TrEMBL record:
Belongs to the ROK (NagC/XylR) family. One of its GO terms (molecular function) is kinase activity. SUPFAM superfamilies: Actin-like ATPase domain. It comes from Leptospira tipperaryensis. This is Glucose kinase. It holds the Pfam family ROK.
Length: 298
């Protein structure tokens, strides 16, 4: 039996699971991280995790993290939640310490692989996932393979234009879909409109739930933006399923049905008959990272 080690670098912790081909967890562990974690502590934690979960059956290690990252050279360029880290040569460091192949990719791509192997996209020949979190990410698994683009930066779906010259996006451009539908987008636009800061996306959706006019208007505009993005993706790559993952899926009841309706109103009638729009996101990040190993070591 082969096993695969998936490591998910998230906000506040690094979670890791040793799993078999079916996604059964054989062992798991985690380490705490935070704003004060420096490069040495960060790399030591990951080496520690691999040493703890190392097993004779282990064939490869997969790692996922928020970006931006350099997949080709295995470098974590920057992370909003780990501000002391810059240009960390993560993969090279692990290869120095262990003999296993190490694979590294961003969390949206790994969410796509996780849904493809173990979630709502299981076995789909054309699966699109959109992560609705701090930002808006995309991942595309086509015929069992992750689409990476020329140098690993494919499917930056959140930066597809919704409104030329529109709201400022975290990427520095204006009018991206992410500026209209993401936690950072909602909070930024709420502040722009009211002058008030909200502490989190939860607070924003709570205001929607209470019927606060500004929040409801901003959510509706966000739904418009997201449905236009889905329209573009559906007409471009003809996915079987679009699965949504990420923290904002918790509030799916506030926008899911309207989103589906709007998308249906924007696409060719034939696409309405079979394109599935689904809230997912129940596959753990560490499983997605393990799925990255499986893609390379069947
Ligand atoms: Zn952008």
């Amino acid at each position: 039996m082969k096993s695969y080690l998936g490591i998910d670098i998230g906000a506040g912790s690094i979670k890791a699971s040793l799993v078999d081909k079916s996604g059964n967890i054989l062992k798991q562990t985690s380490r705490t991280t935070g704003a004060e974690t420096n490069e040495k502590e960060f790399l030591d934690s990951i080496v520690d995790i691999v040493s703890e979960l190392e097993d004779p059956s282990l064939v490869a290690v997969g790692i996922g993290s928020p970006g931006p990252i350099d997949t080709e050279n295995g470098i974590l360029i920057q992370s909003a939640n780990l501000p002391l880290l810059a240009n960390v040569a993560l993969v090279a460091h692990l290869k120095k310490n262990f003999k296993f192949p190490v694979y590294y990719n961003n969390d949206a791509n790994l969410a796509a692989l996780g849904e493809y192997r173990f979630g709502l996209g299981k076995g789909s020949s054309n699966l699109m996932i959109l992560t609705l979190g701090t930002g808006l990410g995309g991942g595309w698994v086509y015929q069992g393979k992750l689409f990476n683009g020329y140098r690993g930066s494919g499917m930056e779906a959140g930066h597809v234009t919704y409104l030329p010259g529109g709201s400022l996006c975290g990427c520095g451009q204006r009018g991206c879909t992410e500026a209209y539908f993401s936690a950072s987008g909602f909070l930024h636009r709420y502040h722009e409109t009211t002058g008030n800061h909200l502490s989190s996306a939860e607070e924003f959706f709570e205001n929607v739930r209470k019927g606060e006019k500004v929040a409801v208007t901003l959510l509706n505009e966000g739904i418009d933006a997201l449905s236009q993005l889905c329209r573009t993706l559906i007409h471009t790559v003809n996915p079987e399923k679009i699965v949504f993952t990420g923290g904002l899926v918790k509030s799916w009841d506030l926008y899911g049905n309207i989103l589906k309706e709007k998308i249906h109103g924007l696409i060719f009638p034939i696409f309405r008959t079979y394109t599935q729009i689904l809230p997912g996101g129940n596959v753990a990040g560490a499983l997605g990272a393990a799925a990255l190993c499986m893609e390379n070591h069947e």
